Amino acid sequence: MGALGQAEKQPQATTAMKAVVDQVEADWVDGRWANTEVGPFLASTILSPRGRVEKGIAIKVGDKAQATVCFNTELLGYNAAWTGGFLNMKSNRYGLTSWPEPKGDMIFANGNAAGWAHGSDWNDPRANRRGPLPRHWAKYRGLYRHGKRVALHYTVGDATILESPWAGEVGGQPFLSRTLEIGAA
After folding, report:
1. pLDDT band at 98 (very low <50, low <70, confident <90, very high)
2. Which among 7, 97, 130, 168 has the fewest CB atoms less than 10 Å away?
3. Do 9 and 30 contact (CB within 8 A), yes or no?
């Protein structure tokens, strides 16, 4: 057993590394990050087909994790959903210099747009289209786990939202659903 009781799968790291001037890119390739079991979700910048999701959460959905959705915690909406896998994580530079990407077949891909309107206004009010929506409009509060499900917690105006995405199949075709519990803030 290795550190933290994990079975040894990779050779132990050594302090006898090459001098920086002698290192080549291949010295920095390591697939352990791509092989890590991260659980039902991963919070990261995620590169989706319609652009980068700066504060994304990729969530495995369905009884058999048959689909994945990418929730944008800044804009409180879904940027993408796909079936057939979770995330592709590159092995170059130990997987730390590139963003995870969807792995599988896309169901949908949206650009970065507000997931909830402010009154009837859907326009993005953020300076340089960066950062979260204004707090009076909406605010991400966190997430909870409940069995295989993930529940997202956020506020929109004076309402508190608990939302749980899910997936299933009907006639061999995948479907996505959202369960919303809306209450007073």
Report:
1. confident
2. 7
3. no
**More confident call, 95 vs 134:** 134
Q: How far, rounded to the nearest angstrom, does the alpha carbon of residue 51 sit from its chain's CA centroid?
A: 13
CB-CB contact of 137 with 126 (8 Å): no
| Alpha carbon 69 to its chain's center | 7
Strand partners, 140: 154
pLDDT tens, residue by residue, 148-166: 999 999 999 999 999 999 9
Radius of gyration of the chain (CA): 19
Question: Which candidate, 175, 170, 154, 155, places its Cα nearest to that of 69?
Answer: 175
| Residue that has been written with the tokens 């300076």 in this structure | 127
Counted residue by residue, the chain has a size of: 185
CA distance 25 to 29: 7
- The pTM of the full predicted model, rounded to 2 decimals, is 0.84
Contacts of 135 (CB under 8 A, 6+ apart): none
Question: Could you report the per-residue pLDDT of 115-126, keeping only the tens digit for each?
Answer: 999 989 998 888
